[in-house]
Design a protein that fits this description.
alpha+beta; Nucleotide Exchange Factor Grpe, Chain A, domain 2; four-stranded mixed sheet; 7 strands; 20% strand
Length: 138
Amino acid sequence: MSAGDKKSKSKKSAARKRAAQGVSLTDALAEAAWSEADAALAQALADFDEADTADGKAARKDAMARLGQALSRAGRKRGLARVGELDEEVDFDAEAYDLNAAVAKTPKTVRIQARGVTRGGEMLAKPRVAPVDRNKRS
């Protein structure tokens, strides 16, 4: 084997080693991100139990706030984003929203009752809406 052949083999070998290290680094980073998301989700589950068993209105409100924060943190770790604002009034679009109520006539304006969830450009859960009752006085 000539010296040139040895050199090209060692270059290929080094390139393969670097590529293998890159894959394992990527895997390690992905695993760490999922572990963080799992820890945040575990916290949310524990917070749910506290909210579910809270005594008194103030304790329940505080536990629900912690639960919301934990769920938001878990969602962010998984790359999820919320769509819409609670109680926001929007023009109804059947492609963009899930209607929570059975209605005889499609409403023009609806109120967001539950925000939607996206990851990247993909809608995972549409915002849930209900018709705006214009006859109801606040």
